[in-house]
């Protein structure tokens, strides 16, 4: 019962916040809504037994990515639209009718295609879908898998993170003189 | 779910009878509902008690600082002024709730709630005793770290949405400080996780024992250093002195909560004091043996089997002892935090970052690697075991 | 209620929303936001499939790597945005047409 | 008797320990180091005395025999065994040798404390002496040829160091190098011999070699340089070459006179008493092999030539030490002659007696030299022409030296007579048996005459007459009896009396020593028994197969080998003649010398003028040094070296190796041309040009707008997925 | 990796690499730190080697399984990372450890780009360990080749006035040999069926290619004989055997002291080690077939090297040629194929390592004072004179080194040479007798050099020289001790090697 309540809550939060992200015109708010979405996704993870993943989601997104984005928004002039330095007015940065129409069309196409594809796969795999069994702890298994079968990917991602760390620090550093 | 409040209760007959009674009354299995109820009640109690402790924290701070400065401190309201915090609370509620017109109202209201939420959510996994633990998540520590970072978001939002220079700067400082110090803190915690072999608090605490030499702090040299790294990092994460830069009065008026008044301000204050309790509790649980009582008195076996007390009473005496153990350790640390605040001067911003990235993080990394080596070479035996047990073994004292 | 299609549907919504954000917005940070949504949808898909089809942990691990990559991407992407803003005083996507400063 | 390995080996190890300790402390505690050295060798002497006592007074037998060994090198694998043992081997001969070496060495050590006292490197001298003594004792104690070789070489090293002791002098360097290299020539042959024996016996232990000889294992040929040589001859010759090198026999005698560059005590110990005698000792040890190899005639010739040649050179020397050096060579020649004529124990006896009187002679000469200090050059004087009349100032030295001179000249009742006479008697006997041996015999007698002559010449020039260098004489101090300067001399001179060595004068009973034996030497020292000795005769090789080899197998003094009455009588007769002849010869030599240098009735200058060609030859030592240095080394070896080095670096390396560079250069010129024209211009640049055409077309698609690209990607992906999905 | 295997060999092999990393991380200006670090590193390696020696089981022939390391490397081509140690390689490992530590000490005075020097030096050490420890032919070859790189730079940068020429010559010469070896290796790979054991030296050995033939240029050759010759040239260049020896005087003379020590002390042994490890076990019947040729070449080495040495006026060149001569003895021992000869050869490898290292170190010490090495200058004047009086401590150590090199009994050279001669006399009597004269000439050139440099009056130029300082004496002491102790009691070395050598000899004795 808990799980179903949790699922309902999480799904609602996810969908609602996502719609809010799409709908809002304030970038700061969008970011906060995104936080909600991410928490919702974490909740969804929790409902299908991905406890470690849920915790990771919270740690990484809530603790890191969202704050980073907030910083970035703040450092790049906040939520308001601005003119560029040449004085030419551009399309508002949060989008205009024209962009919405283009995006809507593109999304419509891809949505149809993806729906068709998932439907195909879904009908093909209908029999294979198993009911959810008991949720056991995944921490130990993930840990051992990461250090055995997926060691290479693990190491590469660690190098990637290091590279990202150094790279970000170097790129964002203001130029001397 | 190793040992939560529910699993603790369900070992008593009374509870089981109650469940079966409720089931027959409802006509279906009522254990789920009752579990929910118990959780709800437990959460309610703990949140309130913690709020109380947070309030008492302000009182303690004032009293201890007075003591350190040879003053009296609050002494009018109640005996020794102990009800001072209630008076302050009443004052806060009575105050006018001001929202600056230029601020982003949505986020201005959201910020203190986020901060408080982040702290309160951590209580779900804090191991007060072997029975009094709301949920023993498999990813307990990890969850705690993640949730407590919401405080950072709250702080930042508060700073940003106030639309004030001081708040802005304070919020930025707070957020960057919290994010930065999360790194050494997490690494130090990770080395303990390495030793215990799990992330749930039950595992972590049960890997230790009642006596100091069985605590993780004295397990090996690396954890000994790791404790201090954690403690310093935790101080910075909770914005306590000497790292209270986000709310540095002399520079930023009052930092990120400059524009806040009334209950919203009280939320921030409460969040801070509760978070200090949380980090002290985590320190106690991870490094100082948590709720463990010497001679394994905590599981009540001594009282029930040796003293032949009734099971219910015996176990609860054990629980009380464990609670006492946990709170003693935590509150001693709490005292130390306050002591530090009133002793040390504040750091500069660049010194703060230097300390984090150039000293604490490398040390924490070194500790982590060191712990790994320790695990590999000494098969996880503690220093005490190596020194005395192995010596005794070598001397032929038996296997 | 907890079944594969429901998760897939949520994931699909996330994906579509992310794509919409990416195309409609002209602010670079907003676009990055959209990317996060898409990545989350992918991760959710992985977990859902691995739970209901394979019932092993490969999807979890894949999702972990997605999170890792998302974090790295956010760090580098935002760094680039900030640098870009320092150079152009703008975060408008259409201002980013040159490969050199 | 309890002889454990350790308490016997201690004899050699004590000086070695002294060496090790002294090597570290000599700089700081010179006095202590000297004391340690002397005490060590004295302790060795006491230990040697114990063994000697057991040999002579306890056992009374010729079968005293201790042989103990331990495993030194073991490299045997699972299938192939290979071990090298080291050990000690004591028989009567060893015991006598030990006593002689330790006794003489002790006295010389004591004397050195006086002689070397003012030297800057007083302590270091004792370090070397200790090492040398331990090596010599080790050699004597050795039970196998390999360890003999080891100690042999170690002694060579000590000799090298001590000859080069005054390393500031240019000549010392030359002399030491010459000594080492010359003996090394012999050593190389010695090593060949060891290898040959090892190959046959599988061991080089004396016992095993004797056993192998008696089993006839040496009775085959060996192919070397394509020649077949009897292996016994080959091995014996190789070993004997070691003797030639070490004992300064013809033709490797050149190093010993130069070795006198070293301090006089070291000359006494190393180059007179012990080390050079070690060569003869080796020949005696390997006597059965020499016999089996039919080498005795050759040995006799070598010995006789050496004895005579060295004696002639000694006639014209003016340096007192040089005279003694040549006399040493000459006496060593006698010993080798003794080996060659089968006078086994006579040769060994001469070794012992010679060691004693020659050590004494050198010490006396040292005493003389030490007392003659030239105040102009601040050097000691060794030239006899500047001496004369020293008898009055150096009375004790004179007494000692006189005794020794009498001994070496073969005057009756002195030890030299006893031993030398026996060798000469055996030589005469051999000559009577076989004509070939006449030459060595005659040369031996002639050398005896010359010996008496030049020794007394030295005595007359040194001690008698008027002092020729007055100033030098005036500065001399009177000699007093002093414990470390002339007492050792006197002690040694006591042992120049013949009675200590023999109970008779000529081999017949005179004094009964013990148990009815007149001859303790003859009793104790006995030729190694080789039972069932199988002779290997090779028709083409043996010089004269008609010679009855059986005669050579037993010394005339070998009491154990029963001879018929007739034979014994014959031997007695011949020896009596020999003894008389040698007495006459000795006295005539002394008399001639007295005429020339004592009474000065004959002018030496006249005789040198008469035989001026010979005289020059003698002064130049028969041009041996000239030949070796000027011709062999400077004209042959060094040009060969330079030529080879030139070939190596100048021609082979420069043209054959570095010449490849030119070949390579040609190759790469061609390759470069090909590369430039064909590969680079046509193939590579052409490809680039063709690519450029496509650039122009594709460039237009680059709009620079990210979202445009993104939409494109989505559309393309969609169509792709569509295509897949429709299948 | 097998269960329970010891990682000691990995530690020995990779410890210098750690040292290289450390040197690279240290700042350039902290020269003393770099030196201390390198010293510490080599000392640790030495400790590991000693531990290896302690754990070594003398009774077991062949590779000692507790130390073996097998890790797949390039599995497609059946290349493994295979390490092992037996009685033949252990003395070499010990020698390498000892000499490198001493060389670090002797390189203390180097001031020219210290960081690069020590990094390359430690790298060289790792490569040498690789050669001595690897059991996979490919791995062996890789280390063999990689070793050239640091050597090239060490000679080419820190060498004498003609260093570039020497370095290039050394490089090309040895490279030529390696290529022949590579051909042999590839041929072996295919001849053995290119399976998982095709690069395994142990699996290849034992005479599996005896009856195989090969067609080249239309004619048929015996496979083993042809490729034995290839391998022979490859290893012979390293030894160096007579016609391939001319790189050695150049390289030795131009290299800095420590590098000369390593060249003579360790590098030359790699050639003979190659014979023992690869050429002999893999082609036993070809080795027996060619043994008389090897013996003759060894003889030429002995005599020719000694005669050439006698003509030199440069001390270092003289010692370089003496190395040629001494390595000839090793070749003789190898040609003997008896238990004495082979043991003697391995022991001679070790002993020559110590004694010639002493000689080169001593010449380095002298060079630091005099800055020239002429015994007799080209204009005929004396380069040195009376050093005995001027430098007494130096002279004593020089005497020890010289006589050890000469083969004086009681010092280490004698035992090995005696064993070699005992071994070879059985098979090649004439060669033995001739080779013994090499000893004579050996003594001649050394003593002559000694006489010219040390005896006599001190010449004016030498009066400024100071005697050896404490550091120099300190690093000479272990070598002196080794020379004397192994001269009196060689069992510590012989015991280690005898089982393995005996196994090899019994393999060879089947053909």
> Separation of termini of chain D?
111 Å
CATH A-level architecture of the largest domain in chain A: Up-down Bundle
Runs of chain A in which pLDDT lies below 50 for 5 or more consecutive residues are none
CATH superfamily of the largest domain in chain A: NADH-ubiquinone/plastoquinone oxidoreductase chain 6, subunit NuoJ
Portion in helices of chain A: over 70%
Domain tally of chain D = 4
Largest interface: A-C, 88 and 70 residues
Number of helical regions of chain D? 27
Mean pLDDT of chain A: 78
Strand content of chain D: under 5%
Task: Characterize the largest beta sheet of chain A: strand count, sense, and whether it forms a barrel.
Answer: none
The largest pleated sheet of chain D is described as:
2 strands, antiparallel
What ranges of chain D have pLDDT less than 50 throughout 5 or more consecutive residues?
A: 531-562
> How helix-rich are the residues of chain D, as a percent range?
55-70%
Shape of chain A: globular
The CATH class designation of the largest domain in chain A is: Mainly Alpha
| Overall SS class of chain D | mainly alpha
List the helices and strands of chain A in order. HHHHHH
Structural topology:
The complex is a heteropentamer of chains A (177), B (399), C (101), D (727) and E (511).
Chain A: H1 2-23, H2 27-47, H3 51-75, H4 97-124, H5 139-147, H6 151-172
Helix pairs in contact in A: 1-2, 2-3
Chain B: H1 5-9, H2 13-26, H3 31-68, H4 84-94, H5 105-122, H6 140-148, H7 150-161, H8 165-196, H9 201-206, H10 221-237, H11 249-252, H12 262-287, H13 301-306, H14 311-341, H15 349-378, H16 383-394
Helix pairs in contact in B: 3-4, 3-12, 4-12, 5-6, 5-7, 5-12, 7-8, 8-10, 8-15, 10-12, 10-15, 12-14
Chain C: H1 4-24, H2 28-54, H3 58-88
Helix pairs in contact in C: 1-2, 2-3
